[in-house]
Structures are given as C-alpha cells and as structure tokens.
C-alpha cells in the first residue's frame, strides 16, 4: 500500500511497504545484537521511513550451513519507505560483517493487511476457541 507524503520541496514522495529479514551471526553477544538491531531501526526511521513492526525470532537453526555456521539470529523489520532507500539499506547490510544473509521484499496491499491481521492474532482465534470448548 503506497502512501504519499509531502516533502520540504513540495514534491510528492511515494512510500512503499517493505519487509526485511536479516540473519545475524550466532557469535554475537546479547549487547552486540541489541546494538545491531538498534542501528538498523535507527537507519529506517532516520531516512524518512516509518517502522511498522519489528520482530526478533531469536536464535534459530538454519536449513543449511552459512559461513560454516548452523544457527543465526533472525530479525524481521516491516516498514514504509521511499523506494530509493532500499539500495542504501541493503548496501549497509552488505558492508556489515555481522550479517550472514538478508532478504528484502516489497509488500502488496494484501500482504500488509495479512501481516496486520496476523499481529492482532486473528488467525489463531478458531484454535483458541476449540481448546476452550474442549477444556469445559
């Protein structure tokens, strides 16, 4: 879902929705990981972007070894930004040796709605209701 905003030069800038998943190396300490997460959160918000959602999936086993490592810290960012920002954002990923892999995708309007509903817990309501009825 693209959003238009007015900049200082009265040009309209189209903000598009994106989602980035980053896999950090597992050798980072908790403090180093928090610093890295904060760095990319700040990069999104400083570049006229809006951070919609951030999710830390924690230390997870990889499907295949990357750089001889079998686990990694997964971080998900959902944000709105100018399309020109993505190349700058991914350049920062490539330069950071703490990042093993990353993936950035553009979200369409259906994906944005789906993610919002997922965050609100709408998809697990049926299972919760069934468990409550079974417990009675």
- What count of structural domains? 1
Q: Treating each run of at least 4 consecutive H or I residues as one helix, how many helices?
A: 4
Round the Cα radius of gyration to an integer and report it: 18 Å
Task: Specify the CATH homologous superfamily.
Answer: Ribosomal protein S6/Translation elongation factor EF1B
SSE order in H/E notation? EEHEEHEHH
Share of residues in strands:
35-45%
Just name the CATH architecture: 2-Layer Sandwich
Overall description:
- The protein has 136 residues and is an alpha+beta fold.
- The chain has a single domain, classed as 2-Layer Sandwich (Alpha-Beta Plaits), CATH 3.30.70.
- 37% of the residues lie in helices and 40% in strands.
- The protein is built from four helices and five strands, in the order E-E-H-E-E-H-E-H-H.
- The chain has helices spanning 30-46, 85-95, 109-119, 125-135; strands at 3-6, 12-24, 50-66, 69-81, 99-106.
- Strand 1 and strand 2 form a beta hairpin.
- The N and C termini lie far apart (43 Å).
- 12% of the residues are buried.
Supply the key terms.
five-stranded antiparallel sheet, alpha+beta, 136 residues, Alpha-Beta Plaits, 37% helix, 5 strands
SSE layout and pairing:
Layout: E1 3-6, E2 12-24, H1 30-46, E3 50-66, E4 69-81, H2 85-95, E5 99-106, H3 109-119, H4 125-135
């Amino acid at each position: 879902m693209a959003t238009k905003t007015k900049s200082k030069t009265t040009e309209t800038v189209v903000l598009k929705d994106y989602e980035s998943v980053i896999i950090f190396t597992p050798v980072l300490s908790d403090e180093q990981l928090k610093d890295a997460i904060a760095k990319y959160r700040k990069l999104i918000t400083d570049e006229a972007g809006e951070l919609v959602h951030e999710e830390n999936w924690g230390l997870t086993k990889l499907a295949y070894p990357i750089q001889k490592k079998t686990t990694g810290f997964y971080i998900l960012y959902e944000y709105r930004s100018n399309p020109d920002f993505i190349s700058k954002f991914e350049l920062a990923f490539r330069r950071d040796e703490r990042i093993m892999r990353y993936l950035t995708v553009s979200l369409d309007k259906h994906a944005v709605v789906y993610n919002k509903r997922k965050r609100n817990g709408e998809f697990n309501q049926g299972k919760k209701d069934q468990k409550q009825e079974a417990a009675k």
